[in-house]
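Example record

One chain of 224 residues, shown exactly as stored in the release files.
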Amino acid sequence: VPLAAGTLSATASGAATVTGVGSSSLQITGPLADVNATLATLSFTGAPDFNTNTGPSSPDTPVELTVVASDQGNSGAGGPKTTTGMIRITVVSINDPPTGVDDRIQVVANTTTTLDVLANDRIAPDEGEVLRVRRVIAAPLHGTATVAPDGAGIIYTPVPGYAGEDSLVYELCDDGSSGAPGPLCAAARVELTVVQGRFRFFLPLTVNERSTTGPIPTSGRSSH
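Predicted structure tokens for this chain:
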């Protein structure tokens, strides 16, 4: 088989011998009956995350196992005779669960914020899947948290006037497009720091005709 696809194994039966166990090529020798009994134990182990699915709109491309049989020329004149056959192996893709990565996010008091919690979550080793927030598992103590309508984030609103630490736990799921058994989920925690907002305001200023008149920018901290 192709080296990248996986390895072959077989258990010797009777007087048969097997070489190359755990590699991409096996050699089995011995009396015909024992060789056939050994071939009955032949197994293929795919490489990690290997499958023959080339894409959602493409058919599988099976692994081709080439089998060469030789009679060793022991039954008469003419020397060894060989024949070649082919076994095609289809390896079904399996969905791996996503990995939820914890977040630490700063938000502003008295403000509703959509938290982009999926940005650092991972679908690897799968490819092409879409992650969505499924639900909030553990609600925040100092605010409310709901799943955004498109599942792309979490809408968080702190309690009016609150500033300090808060947290929540959410569940994220993939779309199951990479294989059986379908969508899989994971969980991650969000640590929130709620800070008082800063704002700018302008004080009108009246001056005499020899001076300029204009707004003076002033910074401050919200008292709400």
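Notes: Helices lie at 32-39.
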